[in-house]
Write a structure and sequence with these properties.
Length: 350
């Protein structure tokens, strides 16, 4: 079968190659890959900046945003041929640390977790893949076109879970959220905000185009002005930061109303230095009981919440987030970022 592979930390090494089919049996589901979402992490791995091959190997099968259809399922697995499934990304560390031992491997404490398509485990970027049933999530049959958005939606479901848990340390009844960045994570965060009945605002650099249209179609208010001014005007109770751009992150941290929660979800590269008035930031955090919380990855609870959120969303709105579909063999086009992209998806069918 064909698979998108890469030698981690070697720029330009991404290649579609023949690789062996997953071995039969072994208690796993055998899945026909339908689609693979491409995100910033995949682009970083392809650029040689991130990623780990499986032990003893040079190449890693890329891809962690999966969607497939079960071809074979062991008896008693809870799955049947034809089911639409997504594979969970992370696996607990083998020791395991206390968080992994409690099934919260998204909160791994020792960094020895593994991740499909990212860290030491082959990903889902192949025509066939297999997955342990306990790391597979069943999707509503209506999500055959858009279920590939489940993994980014799970990251967002976790971010909202963090915001609500942090808020719950005292009386918390948020009304307004500002989402910075209208990529897939930002727009899905906005969707979950709308589903919670909040007044949702989305801010992005793009003044118009598919991102602005997608935010508007959700019923959110779209902004493209400076973050600090917009936040000052809106005084949001919650900010979900989805750009990872240092100046935006800084303005987001300082931008909430009192008792605000800023959740950072964007992975930045290091080396960008900007002057910071830490005294001002500290003063506002302390005097307002604000919290800044980082959030990455997702555990099965978040995948389940995300699957429910996608099933409840307008299918045409979800479809509008997928702005390009590229066949596997033309993967290089999918790895390019184009100005009007929201989510780019590789199609895996033969
Ligand atoms: C993935 C997460 C993963 C993180 C760090 C993100 O792109 O969505 O599942 O934990 O990268 O490797």
């Amino acid at each position: 079968m064909r698979a998108l592979t890469v030698v981690p930390l070697q720029p330009g090494s991404a290649e579609v190659r023949d690789v062996p089919d997953p071995p039969p049996g072994d208690g796993r589901l055998l899945v026909e890959g339908l689609a693979l979402g491409v995100c910033g992490t995949d682009r970083e791995i392809a650029a040689g900046e991130y990623g780990w091959a499986p032990p003893g190997r040079d190449r890693l099968v890329l891809g962690h945003e999966s969607l497939g259809r079960v071809r074979e399922a062991p008896a008693g697995s809870g799955f049947a041929p034809g089911d639409l499934v997504v594979g969970i990304v992370r696996r607990p560390d083998p020791r395991p640390c206390p968080a992994c031992a409690h099934g919260e491997f998204d909160m791994c404490r020792n960094g020895e977790y593994t991740e499909r398509g990212i860290k030491e485990l082959d990903g889902y970027g192949s025509q066939l893949w297999s997955v342990e049933p306990q790391f597979a999530v069943a999707l509503d049959a209506g999500l055959a076109e858009t279920g590939v958005l489940l993994e980014p939606a799970s990251v967002v479901a976790k971010a909202w879970d963090q915001v609500e848990r942090v808020g719950a340390r005292s009386y918390f009844a948020p009304e307004r959220v500002l989402v910075t960045g209208a990529g897939p994570i930002g727009l899905l965060a906005a969707l979950l905000g709308v589903q919670r009945g909040l007044d949702v605002h989305v801010l992005d650099r793009a003044e118009a185009g598919p991102k602005a249209r997608a935010a508007g179609a959700l019923g959110a208010t779209y902004h493209s002005g400076p973050v600090a001014e917009t936040a000052e005007r809106l005084r949001p109770d919650v900010i979900i930061e989805a750009t990872g751009a240092p100046p935006v992150v800084l303005d987001a941290i300082a931008g909430t109303a009192a008792y605000g929660v800023t959740c950072l979800t964007g992975v930045s590269s290091s080396g960008h230095r900007i002057p910071v008035d830490l005294g001002r930031a500290n003063r506002s955090l302390v005097l307002e009981n604000d919290v800044v919380v980082g959030s990455v990855n997702a555990n099965p609870r978040h995948y389940t919440a995300a699957a429910q959120a996608l099933a409840a969303a307008d299918p045409a709105w979800l479809a509008s987030l997928i702005t390009r579909r590229v066949p596997l063999e033309r993967f290089a086009e999918a790895l390019e970022s184009r100005p009007d992209d929201i989510k780019v998806v590789l199609t895996l069918g033969s």
